[in-house]
Structures are given as structure tokens and as C-alpha cells.
Amino acid sequence: MKLSVWTYEGPPHVGALRVATAMKGLHYVLHAPQGDTYADLLFTMIERRNHRPPVTYTTFQARDLGADTAQLFKTACLAAYERFQPQAMIVGASCTAELIQDDPGGMAETMGLPVPVIPLELPSYQRKENFGADETLFQLVRALSRPMDRSAHVTCNLIGPTALGFRHRDDITELTALLGDMGIGVNVCAPYGATPQDLTRLGAAHFNVLMYPETGEAACRWMERELGQPYTRTVPIGVGATRDFLGEVAALTGRSVALDESRLRLPWYSASVDSTYLTGKRVFIFGDGTHVACAARIARDEMGFEVAGLGCYNREQARMIRGLARDYGVEALITEDYLEVESRIAELAPEMILGTQMERHIGKRLGIPCAVISAPVHVQDFPARYSPQMGIEGANVIFDTWVHPLVMGLEEHLLTMFREDFEFHDDAGASHHGGAATPRVVDPAPAPAEAPETGAEVIWLDEAERELRKVPFFVRGKARRNTETYASERGLTRIGLDTLYDAKAHYAR
Amino acid sequence: MSAPAPATGCRDVPVLAERGQHEVFCGLTGIIWLHRKIQDAFFLVVGSRTCAHLLQSAAGVMIFAEPRFGTAILEETDLAGLADAQEELEREVDRLLSRRPDIRQLFLVGSCPSEVIKLDLSRAAERLSARHAPKVRVLNYSGSGIETTFTEGEDACLAAMAPALPDTDRRQLIMVGALPDVVEDQALDLLSKLGIEDVAVLPARHADSGLAVGPNTVFALTQPFLGGTLAALERRGARHIPAPFPFGEQGTTAWLAAVAREFGVDQAHFDAVTAAPRARATRAVAQAAEGLRDKSVFFFPDSQLEIPLARFLTRECGMRAIEVGAPYIHRGVVGPELDLLDRGPLLAEGQDVERQLDRCRAARPDLTVCGLGLANPLEAEGLATKWAIELVFTPVHFYEQAGDLAGLFSRPLRRRAALRLEAAE
Questions:
Q1: CA separation, residue A205 to residues A172, A211, A220 (Å)
Q2: For A59, which of A34, A184, A293, B280 could close a Cys bridge (C-beta 3.0–4.6 Å)?
Q3: How far is Cα B253 from Cα B341, in angstroms, rounded to an integer?
Q4: What residues are paired with A285 via a beta bridge?
Q5: Please, which residues have CB within 8 angstroms of residue B419's CB and are 6 or more apart in sequence?
Q6: What φ, ψ does residue A156 adopt, rounded to 5°?
């Protein structure tokens, strides 16, 4: 038993729902108690889908448990087939139905429905949402695809985008255009927008593009083995990764790399003098493994940030993230407990967080700006405008998104110069973010002899503490941390004004 | 009361009982408002990742002010042996209470998985109560989807509190139902002006409120989904005052009148106290309801508020009800409402969502009141909708909110009329 307040991932059947909802002509019959239908609103509200997810829930109640829940499942299954006439069905159980052991797969098989019925075994008490999506797509591909002649033109499949994915809709558009520039067509994109019939044509592609390992890797591996289709390993998020990805595609297809850079702005924006203030900003990165790995590379190599820490919530990617953390000289945080993430962030005191919606809230509490880079998603992660993460436009979008939460160049200097101004002060925050102006809270008298704040074993003397408060909020955490590190490295137990400025000189860059 | 009851109410009309897919929340959802209402309580769901995900998603936005609820997620090892699960639960509760010393009441909330594996939460609550008494009282109830629908979770919670209340012989009124604080204060003020001073509220905002119950207690429900709490309070010797619910000017007046009769308030005083707020409410409703007159409304089952709201919309806003679906119809509770609802609409209990959608599409109502899973799909089909959950999350009771209540229904129609997305020609 584990106490959980907020979770990064839902149960595995929600992953299956993300696959089913992304597709057309597929229907999911889910053996589940009344109440599990809440999952529909994830799609209709968060993603603003204008159709109900193609799911029939048996919604059994207590009185059914004594009677015949198996019959209830069969009735629901038959009614769903008759009403929706799908090309294929998937059947499975949610956490509660798993306990009553009705075996939806076995029952559906005996019903002799005239379409493929694919049973899903998703262990609700061991695995989570991403596994559910990955496994569902894999089972669909395994059941429906078969070896066939390759298409005459060079084509690929786009594998992994689902409903409720972080910018999956726009990544598909961006990638399709990128590949089109190299003369490569998209055979099937799955599960997003595909029908079960489309899945039978997967084998015609020359190779697969694994867009999101979280939700597509099992399917890609199986197709590599059974259909002889190689798949790409680089996820093209960021300028360098996009170039590497196209190089990989070129190697797989024998075509030469073609990349239209006329719209690519990140490199120049990052090089322009206005971006100087981004140099060495300490960022903490957390999310799903794939997006974190991509963000770390962009942060260090393309934005000039310093990666202060990173981690992921999905254990499936723990090994990769640990390896990555070693390369960046930081310790990886692999956890699904947001309280642990919060305390790591508080401890590292980064100047910015690149995280999920959960870290956005953590950032709010700690007063640290945050840009969202990964699922779990929120209604804000489905902007009306075209807003991919992948490819050329993805890099542009990422530049804007990451810079937006920060206090900008000259404003940062002005804040430092006039930090005790009555309206243009620390607590007012960045001026382009709106919100009511917060008047500066004037310290009551010369700060009375309050208990000096203790950072580990070092003590801040009053004058130093007061001076620290004059440091702008967006670097105060770093100043405190640097000073404490400086002090403890020198065996100092008390931090005075001199220690503060010695440390400042020491860390000057 | 001003408006007379219709000659033929709906109390005896046959009800269409449906048994198919229920597109509804489970009772755990009530935790979202109960944990804000009862300020020293923590709600610990004993359940699965699905329960945790539901609470997070139903809240819509995450309440990051360190919420006073959480889920003890059952894992493989807990399912293997039950003795284990009891110990594990005790360990998690110990840890929780040591981290949150402000907690005075802890609710162990049963879920579908905990009910199916027959985890005995009442025994767990007893043991934990003994262990943490007198500082923390531990109670249990079920919010599972196999036993409760949406607002029945609040009913189960309040019903679980009733047996634990101290005894009293005081002649008092208990107002039953979790209301927003501002609405609760308005209601208490009205009752006080009527001369009814000894009024308590269930649920109280704090554990040490002094709330007690006994044979001289009478109680009135402010929410129509509290049938279980009604029975639990009757078992403590208290007496129920049947009344319509305080929605709209008429509902509020009828509710107050029933209470006033019980306490022997004379008519002149009653009229003097209620005249001004009644007039305000009537004006506010008339204004907000301008766009609702002669429009049709169709209710999907959600919170059990459907029957009182249909009464409000038809009698005070001039709407025509086509179908009124409720997850459950408790005649002892909504009987007075059914008397006031004119015959005509189809009354449905339970749900078969696909068949109900067929009926809705065929009827093409001007306004459909439904859950969040159905709203956008129906909008995309050209039907105007009102999310039912907002009716539970918004202050809508009593006189001063009557206009806001009508406004919740008229806004979707006003918005449709306001949007001009075509070319200007």
C-alpha cells in the first residue's frame, strides 16, 4: 500500500483508452464498475474532443456482483458491436474487474463476433498508463499487421502518437512535412487517426519512425522482428536531434538529408545578444523519460543553460535517464511521488523548471518559473495554434515557451539596480506576466532579532540575511546555495556580509 | 406559498427504470468538496490508481494547497493476504497523522477494489480510533462506484457521522447537507431572523463544533441526495421535516415555510422576514431567465438534483422539461418536489446512456443538462449543454443565489446567441 496524493500516470486501462480514442473504427469494451466512466471526460474536456471515446463500460454495481457479471459483459459486448459496427474490438478489465476474474478476453472469443476481437491483459496493480498504451498498440499491431510487399515509393509509419498526448497532434504534422521534404511518404500513422484496416497495411512501409518510446516501442520492436522494418532511435525534438534524426532516416533509406531551414529560428535567437542573460541559468528537468532526455540536450547545447538536475516518473525509462544524468554530472531522480520532486527542486533551487503540470504547481509554490515539456496533460497543453515540439517549428516553439516564464534581459538588470523600488521590485514578478501589481512589503522596522536561518550546519548572520533579501528573487536561491556551499567548503559555520561577497566573487562568471 | 401546486403532480407517474451503461461519477467525487467543507478532516481512499486518477481528474484543476485527501493505493502484495492490508493501512495512517497534526477527523473511504476484496474498513476504523483517540476520530464509509453514484458519496459520509454524534435532549434544528460557507451563513441568518436560534449544521466545519443529536432534534435536508443520512438521523431519534429544496424563490420559501411551521413562526413574521429577499430573488430570476422561457430542457442523470431543478426551471423560469433522468429517485426525500412538478416530462431512473442519447437526439432539446463526458460531443452535434457538475460546485441554494442558478442555465444559450463566426455577408 502506498499513499499517493497526485499521480503522474493513470491506470493502464487509461493507456488503452488513449489508443482506442486516437483511432477510428475500433471499439473498446471495458469491464469496469460504475464510476470508471470518468475517463471519458479526460478526452472530451482536456483534449476538447468532439466525440465520445469509443468505449463501452459494463458499469456493474454491487447487486450485479452476486448475480452474473459475466453475462453483463457479454450483453455489453454484443450491444456495442451491433450499435457501432467497428472494424475490430479490444476487450479488457479495469482494476476492479480484474479482481472478479470474469476473463473478458475468453468470453469475447466464445461469442463469435464477425470482427477481430483482441483481448488485453493489463495488470492494474503493477503497471501504469504508459505501459497500457504501449501494450495495447503492440497487441493491435500483432493481431492485425502482416508481412507484405513494400510500397513502391519510400514510405514509413509514424508510431506512438495517442489521444491525450503532449502535442502529438502537431508533431505528426511537423514530421510528415519533414519527411516529405526528403521525398518520404507516411504509410500509416498509428494509433493517431488510424483504423484497424490501416493497421493491416503497416507492413508496406520501408521503416518505422518511433515518435514516442513510451507508447510505441513494443510495437516497433515487434515490427522490426516480424516485418523486417527497422525503426529510428532519435526522437527529433530540438535542432540537434532533428538533424540527427534526418541523418538516421538518410542512413535507413539511402536518401540524402534535406532540411529546409528557412523557418528555423532557434539557433539565431539563441545566439543573438538579447539571449546572453540565458547563459548558465540553472534548470531542473522532470517529466517522461523521452521528453526529459530531449529537453536536457536542448537546455545545455541549444539554450546555454546549466542542467542542475533531471529525472523521470516512468520507471520504464529509468536506465536511460540514469545514464543521461551521469553524462550531465547530476544525480537522476526516478520517482512518481511529486513530494520527492518538490523537495529535490527546493534543495537544488534552480532558476527555472522544465517539467509537467505538476512541476508547474511546485514552481508556483516555490516561486520558480516553469515551462511545461511533458505529459501528464492539462487543457492548456492543447493550444488552438499549431504548436509542435518536434522538428523545425518544434524548436522555435520550445525557444519561445522556455524563455517566456523568465524575467528578460534588461528587466533583469533594472530589477537588480532598483530592487527596493516601491512597485518595480522582486515580488512583483516579470512585468510581461500581468496580474495585479503587488506593493512591496516593507520590513517592519530594522528586522528584529529573528532567529537566524540555518542552512544545514551554517548560520546566517543578520546582516548577511538582510543583504541576501536584496538579491532579486530569481537568483536568490542560487545565491543562498552558493554561499552556503562556499562557507561549508571552507569550514565556516557563520555567514557574514564578507562571506556573502566572497562567495559572489568566487562564483562570478 | 404563492404559486399553488399543479393539479396533477408527478408523484405517481410511472418511472422508466433503465439498466445499461451508467455515465456517472462514483461517490469518491464528493471528497472534492467535502474536504474543503470539513476543515480538520482528511479523506483517505483505500483503493487503486484509478481512484487516485479520478480524484485528480474530477477536480479538474489540481488543488495544490496540500489537499486533505489522498489514496492508499492497493498493490499486488495487499491483494495476496488481507491481514497484511490491515497492517499496511495502519502504518500509512500513522505516518499521515504524524505529518498532519492538524487533522482531527479521518475518513477511511472504501472503493470498488476494497469492497470487492472485502477489506473490513469499519474494523480498521475502530482499531485506528482506539489508537488515536481522543485527538483523532476515525470513521469509514464507502464511496465506491459499485455502491454509490456521485453525490451519494456525501450521503454515505454524513450517514457515517450520525451514529458517532453525542446525544442531546435540546430542542434544535439541524440543517443537513454540505453548502458553500457563504450560503450556509445566509441560511443561518434567515433562520435566526425567523426566531429559530438553536440551529446546527451537518457536516460541521470542525470536529469540536458541539454538534449533537437526540429525540428533540428536527432536521431539514438542503440537498436531495441525502436519503441515507435521513435514515441514520431517524435512528438517532431525530425527526425529518419533509420539504421541497431551497432552489429558486419558490423552493426557498417552501423550505423555510416548512421549518417555520415546525417552530410555530407566525405567518406575519414569516412574511416580514422573507418579503425583501423573496422580491430580490424573483427579480433576479426573471432577469436571468429571460432567455429560458418556453425553451425545452433534457436532464441526464448525475447528482439527484435533477428533479428539484426541473421543478425550478419549469415553475420559475418558464421552461418545458422533456426528460428528467436521475440516478436514483428517493420518494421519501423528493416526494414534495414531485408534487410540484407538473406532469409531462418522462421520469427516468438509472441509465442506459446509449438509449438515452437516442431519445435526446430525437427530442433535440434547447438545453441538455449532462455530465462532462457527454457535453462537448453533444455540443458538436449542435445541442446546447449545461455541465451538471457545476450545479454541485457552485453556490446555488437559497434566495440570494436564485438568480445565479437561473444564470447557470441561461449562459450556454446566451453564449450561442452571442457568437458570430460566419462571414458578415
A1: 16, 15, 12
A2: A34
A3: 16
A4: A310, A354
A5: none
A6: -135, 165
Burial class for A63, CB neighbours closer than 10 Å (0-12, 13-18, 19+): exposed
Q: How far apart are CA B299 and CA B302, in angstroms?
A: 8
Q: How far apart are CA A147 and CA A156, in angstroms?
A: 14
On whether the CB atoms of residues B229 and B223 are closer than 8 A, the answer is no
Strands B296-299 and B367-370: parallel
Question: Nearest-CA neighbor of B178 among B270, B303, B327?
Answer: B303
Nearest to A60 among B23, B146, B149 (CB): B146
pLDDT mean over A370-375:
96
Whether residue B258 is predicted with pLDDT greater than 80 in this model: the reply is yes
Q: What does DSSP assign to residue A267?
A: H
C-alpha cell at A439: 506593493
Q: Tell me, what's the pLDDT at B157?
A: 98
B56 burial via Cβ count (<10 Å: 0-12, 13-18, 19+): buried
Quick one: residue A170, left, alpha or beta (phi over 0 = left, psi -120 to 50 = alpha)? alpha
- Give the C-alpha separation, A226 to A433, whole Å: 53
Residue length of chain B: 425
Task: Tell me the residues of chain A between 15 and 54 that have a Cβ less than 8 Å away from chain B.
Answer: 33-42, 44-45, 48-52
SS3 B64: coil
In the sheet where A117-119 sits, what is the strand order? A55-57, A26-31, A88-93, A117-119
pLDDT, mean of residues A406-412: 68
pLDDT over 70 percentage in chain A: 89
Q: Which of A95, A100, A129, A379 to probe the B interface (max B CBs under 10 A)?
A: A95
Distance, CA of B264 to CA of B257 (rounded, Å) = 10
Which is the catalytic residue, given A274, A400, A427, A498? A274
Query: Where residue A503 falls among pLDDT bands split at 50, 70, 90?
Result: confident
